[in-house]
Amino acid sequence: MNIYVLMKRTFDTEEKIAIVNGKIVEDGAEFIINPYDEYAIEEAIQVRDANGGEVTVITIGDEEAEKQLRTALAMGANKAVLINIEDDLDELDEYTSAKILASYLQDKEADLILAGNVAIDGGSGQVGPRVAEFLGINYVTTITSLEVEGKDVKIVRDVEGDAEMIQTSLPILITAQQGLNEPRYPSLPGIMQAKKKPLEELELDDLDLTEEAVAAKTKTVEVYLPAAKKEGRVLEGDIKNQVSELINLLNKEAKVI
Amino acid sequence: MSKKVLVLGEVREGVLRNVSFEAIAAAKKIANGGEIVAVLLGDAVQNCGAEMIHYGADRVVAVEEPNLKTYTSDGFSQAFLAVYEQEKPEAIVFGHTALGKDLSPKLASKLASGLISDITNIEGEGKDALFVRPIYSGKAFEKVQFNEGLYFFTIRPNNIAPLEKDLNRSGDVSTLSVEITNLRTVITELVRKVAEGVDLSEAKVVIAGGRGVKSAEGFQPLQELANLLGGAVGASRGACDADYCDYSLQIGQTGKIVTPDLYIAVGISGAIQHVAGMSNSKIIVAINKDPEANIFKIADYGIVGDLFEVIPMMIEELKQLKVSV
């Protein structure tokens, strides 16, 4: 099977967020594989191990993303592709990313494409379904179970907590929800092997794409931190009085009950 | 310039979701006096049309077809595109719900359009509108604008106030006949895991329990409190991992994002992943035995105490309050 995983390198949101000159400060911050993409990588490896074939992990970014691609290779992916846009694009949105990924994938005859259902930084959840649409293939989002048998695919989809049992077929793009699997840690032999696995680097030119063809449809004009919250009040005194005071505050001051 | 705006009314089990009314209010902000056309898709949805008009839509177009009985991206995109072709709008608003999240990117790609997802506010009006959305799990915000073309955005439930319901408003409810074909997915079964009652992502009051709740039974007083306040019960990942409740209740970075008016965190320590899912709630109350718990740092009001003592007292106080009101 021809399996592809769309991966994003993300800022670890456990990091403290600071903004300087209207931009999030990234210097010295920890970067990780988007956690939902880890589920996608793990699932891809499991499907390949059960059905044969190859797993290719793709990302868009700059050379810094090589580290996360090597991690995916160390987990067990066969190949990695970095679409390096550093010299070409200053601004990209979900349209841009999807257009680039779909251009790369259009002649690859992918049977199965996996992605995370959302990235923890941008949080839009758009890129997977957009890529599927550009490729003209079917997709199912936020899945918690995947069974592939021949061309038949059985999926459990999380719909705001309810579970949809779905039957469909390859080729398909799915986006991974928490609960799909437990991603493995790269093993030491895996890490050693990853260094030798192929990591292809491409630029927009290699995909016959111009900057205009992938120009963003939206633009971020400001990034800011939420207003500092007024310091809260921990109530004091006898518990019964605290509860009375709390209910009174919620009713009269905050007016939420 | 005024804009014609299409608003998707989301019907679940015959009832419009609240976010649909909020979407009309959002549409008004950018319509600049233009027409708001509500779109209803399903197999029996036309009767919800009047309510969309009462909440501010000018007109309703419904597509009813047996193949739209359950949501599929293939079915709903065909139906929505048919309405789009008929109406040629300048803007589209969806709720940022499971359905909206799934369908909007497909349509945006089909229409070669931008899409700003999960917005919590709109600043300015018309073409100068800036769309506010949380990023980095709510730790920061960005303001985004459209460079060109269609304005297509999804709104996070509970953030944009709906317009007041006006039973005197009237408008045309028409149907459009669309043949829905080539569905590539078949939903063979829907397993309901979420308890009946108030939907967590749209609830105005959320009572969430953590490991401190100690057992599945420990959630009962929380449910009782939620019932009294017309709210929903949620949970931290810790409580779900410990099997005290279903994962469908999980709030946090990997669970649901909620922004209620009142969030009561009960026996929740305040792990960063949990905070990511609830920190934008308007008022946060923390109840925890541990005075050092992180949750107190973001709470508006806190009680250091045993939840099994505090919650029953709250229930009593509330009952008295209701009697006295």
Question: Which secondary structure elements does this structure contain, and how are they paired or packed?
Answer:
The complex is a heterodimer of chains A (257) and B (325).
Chain A: E1 2-7, E2 9-11, E3 19-20, E4 23-24, E5 31-33, H1 35-51, E6 54-61, H2 66-75, E7 79-84, H3 94-105, E8 112-116, H4 127-135, E9 138-149, E10 152-159, E11 162-169, E12 172-176, H5 188-194, E13 199-202, E14 218-224, E15 233-234, H6 239-253
Parallel strand pairs in A: 1-6, 1-8, 6-7, 7-13, 8-12, 9-12
Antiparallel strand pairs in A: 2-5, 3-4, 9-10, 10-11
Helix pairs in contact in A: 2-5, 3-4
Chain B: E1 5-9, E2 11-12, E3 15-16, H1 18-31, E4 36-42, H2 49-54, E5 59-64, H3 73-87, E6 91-95, H4 98-110, E7 116-119, E8 121-123, E9 130-135, E10 140-146, E11 151-155, E12 172-175, E13 186-191, E14 205-209, H5 220-229, E15 232-235, H6 237-241, E16 262-266, H7 272-278, E17 283-288, H8 295-298, E18 301-304, H9 307-324
Parallel strand pairs in B: 1-4, 1-6, 4-5, 5-12, 6-11, 7-11, 14-15, 14-16, 16-17, 17-18
Antiparallel strand pairs in B: 2-3, 8-9, 9-10
Write a concise synopsis of the structure shown.
The complex is a heterodimer of chains A (257) and B (325). Chain A has helices at 35-51, 66-75, 94-105, 127-135, 188-194, 239-253; strands at residues 2-7, 9-11, 19-20, 23-24, 31-33, 54-61, 79-84, 112-116, 138-149, 152-159, 162-169, 172-176, 199-202, 218-224, 233-234. Chain A is α/β, with parallel strands linked by helices and 257 residues long.
Describe the fold and architecture.
With 257 residues, chain A is an alpha/beta fold. Chain A is built from 6 helices and 15 strands. The mean pLDDT of chain A is 95. Chain B is 28% helix and 26% strand. In chain B, strand 9 (130-135) and strand 10 form a beta hairpin. Chain B is globular and about 60 Å long. At the A-B interface, helix 3, helix 4, strand 9, strand 11 and strand 14 of A face helix 4, strand 7, strand 9, strand 10 and strand 13 of B. Strand 15 (233-234) of chain A pairs parallel with strand 18 (301-304) of chain B, so a sheet runs across the interface.
